[in-house]
Fold:
Amino acid sequence: MKPVKVGVLGLGTVGGGTVNVLKRNAEEIARRAGREIIITRASAKDLNKQRICDTKHISLTTNPLDIINDPEIDIVLELIGGAGPVKDMVLQAIANGKHVVTANKSLIALHGNEIFAKASKQGVIVAFEAAVAGGIPIIKAIREGLSGNQIQWLAGIINGTGNFILTEMRDKGRDFYDVLAEAQALGYAEADPTFDVEGIDAGHKLTILASIAFGIPLQFDKVYTEGISQITRIDVEYAEQLGYRIKHLGIARKTDTGIELRVHPTLIPERRLIANVDGVMNAIVVKGDAVGPTLYYGAGAGAEPTASAVVADVIDVVRALTSDPENRVPHLAFQADALADIAVLPPEKFKTAYYLRLHAEDKPGVLADVTKILANHQISIEAIIQKESFGDETAIPIIMLTQTTLEQEMNAAIAEIEALKTVTGKVNRIRLETLR
Ligand code: HSE
Structure:
């Protein structure tokens, strides 16, 4: 059979890694795919730049359209990233009848509904395993491996940079900005690192996971995101003393009233496997009604881990080339006409437990005032510790863990606590999930 011809847009970290993996494992890949897969063309902004891959036998261009409009190319790999001009490139490739494989999470999270609709009309596949959690085959696991289940919730460490920062803060007592600078130097961070630390990158990935888990359209604009820049070493230490780790989690949960989509720092019990996922590694727990909790762990970024996912998608596309488009695995796991319009809940309707840290005057009755406010809002306290004051501060830290409550009750309680004359400054609140 004729080899399948692939064109690569972008020869950076992921593009370079993909060229290397496809070349190195060519023989094994052909045995799996049933056909030889060769990269014949690639585009890059600067052709003189030093690369991590060998581009011998690949025709290079600076213009991605040369590849997109080349009738010889069967599959286009979009490995440029970002949601700007790349969207038009992908739509053009689809219009030209080409299958597309992308590692681009923002593109899929923001424009996936439109892209998949156009791809389905053209009978082509747009595959995106590499867009979420790098080398972990989490899309395939949820879309295919767990397709007999009703997915109840999923929770994941889906940004390696953020996890690296929190791990270094905890293990080495390092400061936030110091670790962020190292993550940038090591090439883990996004071009704009606020995407990592403010939860945008994780929000993109969560949007995709929630869609394929619950059969809902992609809706990034409804994801609640909170970053890790407010997490202090003190909170990391108190959490540890209480038997918890702070992780930046993406959480999607189906409740009776709607779906929670949220990214925020979260205390989780240190005995959970996912609490022990450190450094740049990613992990996702997916709870299905039949299978129970399942855990997926691996490298969430990097040249070859991400290439592993890209190449797997290419092989899937090659295997499906001769199949009837109507009978392929749907892009978003559920049939396109069966996507459900389930409400995504606003943050006030989230149900979660909390870690609270506040500073109060060290005198009788202060703690009683605080606990009374919580009780008035039906918030039950799970644990409480009061610390001695540091230095000559008159206010002492009080740390509390609460049971699960409605977020709007917690918002109201915090406002009342902050208004107490005996309480200084803001209440620091971090959500807590037991992940049972
Ligand atoms: N900046 C991302 C991360 C890269 O740190 O996880 C992979 O999407």
